[in-house]
Amino acid sequence: MAMWIEEMTGSHVLPSYVDIDYDAISQAVICTIVWSTDHAHDGGRWTDTYSAPATHSDSTIEIGILSHEANTDPEDYQFGGFLTVLGRDDKPKPTRFQTPTRHYPLLDSAPYNPNKTPQLSPLRYKTSINRPSGLHPTLTLTLPSAHLSAPDPSCKLHTYLTLPSALFIDKYQFSDALFLASKNLVALRSLSGATDLEAPEWVVPQWGSAALFELATPSSDTEKHTTDVMQTEHNISIPLHTRYLPASPSSHQAIDVPWPAVFWACRADEGSKHPQNPFDRRHLGYESLFGPKTRFMHVAPSSDVDRLVETIEVPVLDTGKVGLVEVGTVGIVVIAFLGLCWVLFGRVGGEKVEGEKKKQ
């Protein structure tokens, strides 16, 4: 994959993410490669070099330099800049367009001003897992209470987890209202993938599982809300469970757990559904769990970490100590057998001696 990306883009740096989509009608494969930051590290400038495809090739390379512009509709993106197709255009063509979007970052709560570029909300979330995690780790989402207010009355806070096959969620735990309230959860809205509670990891056919939770937010009641804000942090706990893993040469095995996505799901104001936006990421897993008029306002993860992955150590059978276990098991069996023989045959011998003494 890395070599293919380098061949297609000419970049030696791995992108932030790669989306591959297939259109069955046009039979076209659409590949979207995104670098979220300047990957050239050359004074904030992009210094990549791209060449036009061969004349007999059906592929095209279009380069756009676009900037996000302010507009009168907060649910639309407006871009302005230049576009050019390598090998076809003699010079860049100026362009400006506006498109609705289902996905956009959470903005600050200041009144909307169409003459200014919207600013991002200071709300950030962190993900952590208890250490040591053991066989029942708990994933904790931490958000600052001061900024944890719904951008619109129709918005509900959600999180979407993608778990590897070594972990699973017990859906029956989340049927108790008191249990949900103690974890600051509203409900488990969806669970798909590998959901067998007893299967070990090596027999699970799927890559893992995915879960959608609706999260509880601090109460809107004035007195309680003031107390919650003074606590500065709002924690949501999601209990997980590990499957039995294959034996390994060490006593623990590392499991990577990606950070979940956190977003507000809100009802769109107009239209029966959102038209397609070329800049929207599609088929993210949770879009189909909401109606076509739902828009998503994403909460950004904390910028204090370099990798949005938590690594936990799970205990497994240590093959280096299997011999000691076998010796110990055999020893216990032998001792138990000798003890049983002593109880059975020793008691019979004692009864015979006592009987002979009585006859004398």
TrEMBL record:
TM annotation in the entry: 327-350
Single GO biological process annotation from the record: proteolysis
GO cellular component terms, semicolon-separated: endoplasmic reticulum membrane; glycosylphosphatidylinositol-mannosyltransferase I complex
Membrane topology of the entry: Single-pass membrane protein; Single-pass type III membrane protein
Origin: domain of life: Eukaryota
UniProt-listed Pfam families: PIG-X
Subcellular location: Endoplasmic reticulum membrane
Segments for region (Disordered): 90-111
Entry annotated with the keyword 4Fe-4S: no
GO molecular function: mannosyltransferase activity; peptidase activity
InterPro entries: Pbn1, PIG-X/PBN1
Alphabetized UniProt keyword annotations: Endoplasmic reticulum, Glycoprotein, GPI-anchor biosynthesis, Hydrolase, Membrane, Protease, Transmembrane, Transmembrane helix
Listed pathway(s): Glycolipid biosynthesis; glycosylphosphatidylinositol-anchor biosynthesis
PANTHER family tied to this protein: PROTEIN PBN1
Family: Belongs to the PIGX family.
Purpose: Required for proper folding and/or the stability of a subset of proteins in the endoplasmic reticulum. Component of glycosylphosphatidylinositol-mannosyltransferase 1 which transfers the first of the 4 mannoses in the GPI-anchor precursors during GPI-anchor biosynthesis. Probably acts by stabilizing the mannosyltransferase GPI14.
Protein name: Protein PBN1
Annotated organism of origin: Didymella pomorum
Upper taxonomic lineage: Eukaryota, Fungi, Dikarya, Ascomycota, Pezizomycotina
Gene: PBN1
